[in-house]
Amino acid sequence: MNTIEMYNNLENIGIKLYQNDNSAWVKLQEVLSELGEFAAEVASISEEIKNVVMRVFSSLLDAIQNVDQLLAADIVYYELCELVAVYEKIYNGRDIETHQQSNVNKGNIDTKKTYEINMKCLENKWDGYYQKLIEYCERFDLNDKEVQVDEYGNIAVLKSDRWWRMNSFYNSDYAASLALQEIMKQNYISCLYIFGMGNLDTIRKITEYLPTDTMIFIYEPNPKIFGVNSYYSDWSEVLNKENVVLFVEGLNDEELAKCTYIRMENIAYQYSHVYIQPEYGKVYPIAINEKLQECQTMIQNAVLTDNTIDKFAEKFNYNRIMNIPYIYKSILATDMKQFFNENIDIENETAILVAAGPSLDENMEYLRKIKGRAFILAVDSSIRMCEAYGVKPDAYVTVDPQKQEILFENKTAQNTPLFWGLQSVHRQVKQLKCRKIFCNMDSYLPDELKGKLEYIIAGGSVANTGFSILKYLGFHKIIAIGLDLAFLNDKKHASVVYDDGGIREEESKHYTEIKGINGEKLLTYNNFVAYKEDIERRIAEDEKLIFVNASKGAYIEGAIHMPFQEAVDKYVPEKIMDFENIIERCPYSYSSKDEAKVERYLLKYAEDCNEIYDIYKECCQVYESMKNMNNTEDVHIAMNKIDTLYANAEQSFAGQLIVDYSSKEADRVLNLMYKESVNSEKYSQDNLVLLAEKGMQISKIFMENAKKTKKMLIDSIKGIQ
Questions:
Q1: How many C-beta atoms surround the C-beta of residue 431 within 10 A?
Q2: Which of the residues 292, 358, 510, 623 has an alpha carbon 20 to 30 A from that of 201?
């Protein structure tokens, strides 16, 4: 037997097991017979060693049988390798340097002090966002029979009548380093979803390595592991980072989607990555798979949104800037919500969402007859249908940065209250003379309005946004018509909307099949699937919500499906409510005196653009200096300076506008930048020059768009008059 070869083989298998590499199991099976022969020889040394061998191999077989990755890794890398070293010493007289255990040095943990540090950290994080986590920790029982923690902070959980290690019991720090190596294989990560806390060693390594502009979302499926960590693992170093957010199943996990969407502007979702800690996929398969699917859906939706933003980046920014004066000529959605709740028993009222799908034609006549019995919110693309059928909605919504003007060239559009956002088409916001309600729907908000307006998730389509607005106002009963999200009779829209050409062979790559309300297969656009899943997710989040889909297209999970007239009979009260009058009575949020301040705001934002231009110019200078650097430490200092400069540039409203304006061009350069790794111990000269040149290129993009943004801000002042 070649002992050294055996040792190296086991060492390699152990490393791969720690790294969640499934190929390690195959290799372990391959060496099992050889290990058996080896065990017999080692066991013959002494009775004491025989007992050790029996214990080790019994544990190994248990790990293999249950596919227990961490147990197998610990046994292979430490105990089996140790036995091989003992064998080599006794039979061949040679020493093999074995692996050092570190967890045994983590004893004497001050649990009281750790707990106090952790609670203070949660209290200071995001102003009450973690209140439910604090309350859980306060009532958590460390003697819980389904979770164990030893004096070294090693955590094990009881599942399926056996105990599972949630971290390496011998050297969790080293195991964490191996896990980090897998993360480092990704050239660039904008958003990282980590499934499982473990004992936090791996998470510490990851958060230390990744830059502060990488958003890190941590999901823990077992609250008891979170509870144990509150006493045994100081998490302040991790959670005090602004880019790290923690979600615990059953406590605050419902906030994951909301938090993700709110921070969308800082994330390039095409660079999202998922890391599942060892054992979590086996111990909590259902919870992990459900949350993983949820995250993948969010990423898909976000990529669709980002692609839309990239496509219309210039239009988005133009609208956002030119629309600022009209915020101060509108009612704020926050004030509208308050007024509604003061004047309406809104929980007992019903809202009707009028989307523009092909089945809308069948319901317009009946919609006209029940006017006043429910709050009617139409999407902008259905407003012509309302005009044609003599239906006066109580309000309608427009959010797209580009919309055909023909939709608004009618009396209904001109005279119906409008929900809008900064990204809405400026020309239409300016020209429409109706009462306007401003919604914060894309997280871009002038500094003076931050804290005054709550965020409303826009979703991917105007119908999704309409749904969000109704929920935001407080309606618990919502009936949707025309929300087909699929082709019906070769049509995507209702008859009076506009001619979309129906199904086109040249667009087939954008089509997929979807389940209809009767179980049939319907053809739809890929992005329509994302819109449907977004609605389903938000239905699932609200236990009080009754959502009726009175359309004829896609089956929406969690919705009640029934014909429109049946839905009205069941969920719409007979009494008449004059919603139009209530909206008319709602006072504007700002006076003419307030409007006078807008010019000063806009001028200030324009001045900010000058400062931001100078910051990016300095970034160019730092990148230029990097070309001649010859040691890693200097490069890191320069990169940290650039990170600080970029963070300073993005702090203001103007800075956010510039970053978003530049996102498409900057991302294209980033893709080129990260084709070669820049995370090596020593930067090669060619690699460093590539990094510097691409960094300068990005900075110059920001500089140019700072000048363009300033010009638009100056132009927007004309909208004050």
A1: 12
A2: 292
Handedness of CA 693, 694, 698, 699 (dihedral sign): negative
d(CA 502, CA 488): 9
* End position of a domain, from candidates 291, 311, 331: 311
Q: Could you give the number of structural domains in the chain?
A: 4
Neighbouring C-alpha atoms within 13 Å toward the C-beta of 56: 25
Q: Among 101-110, 395-404, 459-468, 654-663, where is mean pLDDT lowest?
A: 101-110
Q: Does residue 70 sit in the same domain as residue 218?
A: no
CA distance 36 to 513: 54
The CA distance from 111 to 1, in Å, is: 48
CB neighbours of 500 closer than 8 A, spacing ≥ 6? 491, 492, 493
Closest CA to 193 of 278, 279, 256, 130: 256
| Under 8 Å between Cβ of 168 and 74 | yes
Place of tokens 């992990």: 288
Q: Is 37 exposed, middle or buried (0-12, 13-18, 19+ CB in 10 A)?
A: exposed
Contact 532, 539 (CB under 8 A): no
Q: pTM score, two decimals?
A: 0.61
- Are the C-beta atoms of residues 196 and 229 closer than 8 Å to each other? no
Q: Are 260 and 298 in contact (CB under 8 A)?
A: yes
Write the CA distances from 118 to 130, 193, 239, integer angstroms. Answer: 11, 22, 9
Domain hosting 147: range is: 111-311
What is the band of 105 on the pLDDT scale with cuts at 50, 70, 90? Answer: low
For Cα atoms 660, 661, 666, give the angle at the middle one, nearest 5 degrees: 80
Tell me, yes or no, whether 27 lies in a domain. Answer: yes
pLDDT digits (tens, 9 = 90+) for 534-545: 899 889 888 899
Contacts 24+ apart (CB under 8 A), 246-250: 246/130, 246/133, 246/197, 246/218, 246/220, 247/217, 247/218, 247/219, 247/220, 248/133, 248/136, 248/219, 248/220, 248/223, 249/219, 249/220, 249/221, 249/222, 249/223, 249/287, 249/291, 250/223
Phi, psi of 168 (to 5 degrees): -65, 130
Query: Taking a C-beta distance cutoff of 8 angstroms, is the pair 284, 322 a contact?
Result: no
Q: What is the pLDDT of residues 491-526, one digit of tens each?
A: 767 766 655 556 555 455 567 888 999 889 988 887
Contact at 8 Å (CB) between 470 and 346? no
Helix (DSSP H) and strand (DSSP E) numbers for the chain? 30, 18
**Pairwise CA distance, residues 417 & 338, whole Å:** 17
Last residue of a domain, one of 99, 122, 156: 99
